[in-house]
Amino acid sequence: MNPSPNVLRREESPHRIRVDSSRTHVAEAPRRTPVAADADVLVVGGGPSGVAAALSAARGGARTVLIERHGLLGGMWTAGLVNPIFDFRKKGWIVAELIDRLESSGAWRPHPRRATFNVEAMVRLLEAMMIEAGVSFQYHVPGVDAIVESGVVRGVIAESKAGREAFLAKVVIDCTGDGDVAARAGAPYELGRPQDGLMQPMTLMFEIEGVGDYEQQKTADTYDQLIEIIRRQQLDIELPFGRVNYAPAIILMPQPGRAAVQATHVYRLNGIDPRAVTRGMVEARKQVADLMRLLPHIPGLENVRLSRTAAALGVRETRRICGRYRLTLEDLKVGRRFDDAVTFCTFGVDIHEPAPGAGVPTGHGARIRPYEIPYRCLLPTGLGGILVAGRCISGSHEAHASYRVTGTCMGMGQAAGFAAAWAVSENATPSELPGPELRQRLAERGVGFLGENRP
Ligand SMILES: Cc1cc2nc3c(=O)[nH]c(=O)nc-3n(C[C@H](O)[C@H](O)[C@H](O)COP(=O)(O)OP(=O)(O)OC[C@H]3O[C@@H](n4cnc5c(N)ncnc54)[C@H](O)[C@@H]3O)c2cc1C
Questions:
Q1: Ligand 1 — pocket residues by CB below 6 A?
Q2: How confident is the model at residue 358, as a pLDDT?
Q3: Residue with the nearest Cα to atom 14 of ligand 1?
């Protein structure tokens, strides 16, 4: 029987790519790419900054589309199983609403320093908030290129199961964590610390259950216990961290008996190289297995079981897109305020040792004062039509290690979405907005800036 025309299909132009004779490259013929969406605001990446940006833009009246490469919203919060949320207080309307709604649904564990959330509840809440706000979001759609005309970003090219598609917008907000869109658009960026290019290590988070009433005191004490267990039992296990104040962290979650564990560390890898991330993922999963052999020997943790490992490796640091201002450790130390501030940060400088034996990280644990983040850090150098928000904004290796926390990233995203909707309503590009007025409008929506005492 002949197949019916509805069953027999063929993809368009299958023969447009030729392999160079050198076999080091292939040549692609020019192609016409269908436009999947033409929005006011396009947000790329649905992590803490991206979700806040999309909600803020949509509520500001902009027709907003968000594309996300994974199958869930939340970025490191959900795909990465990162808990707790640091530095979320007084960050403004969308941040406050998110925490309120987690709290009122029983998905929140309050704590002065380590407030945590139920990951599954977070995923569902973020989806509900996006639907309520009218954001059109699409999963499994990675943005792979930027569409730039005369220095102005007009949209993004995505490649998915649907093929290669264009997403056009009046303003694009890059919330990919890695600054993928801004980098593809030609923005200069920094990678790693200046002296050797090393970045912070990556961590595969995992969740355990059966924790009972156990509550961790000092990470260094837990480190000593683990070393003692290895010695006593003569195990062939090497801990992937030293006697530090950031690992191993056993972080209690809202669900009774459940904790997130921050302990694995993979070093000297570049988070924007998928081959390196693959090696890191394999190595980190082995570290989880090793740690699960040790944890039940800690008094109070006799009944722990592995619940799950994160779907995504936790990448702390990659591109820092150069913008019209570059935040530095000096700004943090003096608690700098800015006329065009969009949010603020109170979190300290948390640099996980970039490699064993690579020396004490410069700036880790430095005494800083609460500081503000200027709008100019969100405006990539030399480009129009684009904002960046989240961990990829313009700053030094040390400053990044402070403002990268999720409460602050949400604050940046919220401001970027607000500014984008405002720019669209004025038919302006984001860099034309008056910074002091932006600050004033954000303050009216509950962003608790740090007062007028500029140092
Ligand atoms: C192991 C680890 C532990 C941490 N612990 C804490 C903590 O305890 N508390 C805290 O507050 N912060 C913590 N942080 C920091 C924090 O998680 C991140 O800095 C923060 O999530 C950054 O937010 P973001 O929105 O910029 O990026 P992300 O959270 O990384 O979100 C980026 C989103 O964009 C998507 N994306 C990326 N590229 C593309 C693309 N090309 N196209 C489409 N989508 C794309 C990703 O899938 C993801 O959903 C930790 C980070 C790590 C790695």
A1: 44-50, 67-70, 75-76, 79-80, 82, 84-86, 142-143, 175-178, 180, 203, 205, 262, 314-316, 390-391, 404-407, 409
A2: 78
A3: 405
Give a yes or no: residue 26 inside a domain.
no
Residue 261 placed within a domain: yes
Ligand 1 pocket, mutate which of 82, 252, 392 (most atoms under 8 A from CB) = 82
Ligand 1 atom index nearest CA of 181: 41
Measured CA to CA, the distance from residue 377 to residue 390 in angstroms comes to 10
The secondary structure of residue 89, as a DSSP letter, is: T
Report yes or no on 199 lying in a domain: no
Domain assignment present for 413: yes
Q: What was the pLDDT predicted at 455?
A: 45
Distance CA(82)–CA(69), nearest Å, equals: 18
pLDDT at 3: 60
pLDDT greater than 50 at residue 235: yes
Banded pLDDT at 357 (limits 50, 70, 90): confident
User: Could you identify the residue written with the tokens 């480190």?
Assistant: 223
Return the closest-CA partner of residue 90 out of 411, 440, 413: 411
Tokens for 175, please give them.
Answer: 């919330």
Same-domain status, 136 and 110: yes
Q: Are residues 95 and 187 in the same domain?
A: yes
What one-letter code names the amino acid at 9? R
Question: The whole model's pTM is what?
Answer: 0.97
The bridge status of strand 136-138 relative to strand 143-149 is unpaired
Cα separation of the two ends of the chain: 82
At 14 the pLDDT is 60
Could you tell me which residue, 175 or 2, shows the higher pLDDT? 175
